[in-house]
Structures are given as structure tokens and as C-alpha cells.
Amino acid sequence: MEDYGIEVNDAPGQYVASSQHSLYVPDSDLRIPLQLLGIFSFLDSRKPMKQEIDKCEHIILTSNVP
């Protein structure tokens, strides 16, 4: 994601006070908070419904280039 221009702040706030523990998408000015399970940061997600696919903004987090 970082190579694609996404800002990845994966250090939890209790360890790095300045971390926002999130993903930041500069093109959309969107900050997506991350959750923590033990030592793993993750983004809770689900399959979108048809109407969400049709009406919501699409955010691409990774490139399809190897």
C-alpha cells in the first residue's frame, strides 16, 4: 500500500504516541481507522451490497502491478 501512495500508520497509539493507527488515502482525503487484535493491526471489512457498489466511492488501496 505504501508503494501505491497510501499512508500506513500501523503502530498502535499506546506504543507510539504520534501514531493515528490508520490508513490514509491522500487522493480522497480519507482516513480509515485500524483495529488491534493482540499484536495484529487489521481493517474490519465485508462484502459490499449491490447498491453500495453502485453508489459509493471506490477506493483502491493496492496496485495490480507486481
Radius of gyration: 14 Å
Largest sheet: 3 strands, antiparallel
Average residue pLDDT: 88
Number of beta-strand segments? 5
The topology string of helices and strands comes to EEEEEH
In one word, what is the shape?
globular
What does this structure look like?
The protein has 1 helix and 5 strands. With 66 residues, the chain is mainly beta. A hairpin with a 4-residue loop joins strand 2 (22-25) and strand 3 (30-33). The protein has one helix spanning 50-55; strands at residues 7-9, 22-25, 30-33, 35-37, 40-42. It is globular, with a radius of gyration of 14 Å. It is 9% helix and 26% strand.
In short:
The protein is mainly beta. It contains one helix and five strands; from the N terminus they run E-E-E-E-E-H. The protein starts with 6 loop residues before the first strand and ends in an 11-residue tail after the last helix.
List keywords for this structure.
two-stranded antiparallel sheet, 9% helix, 66 residues, mainly beta
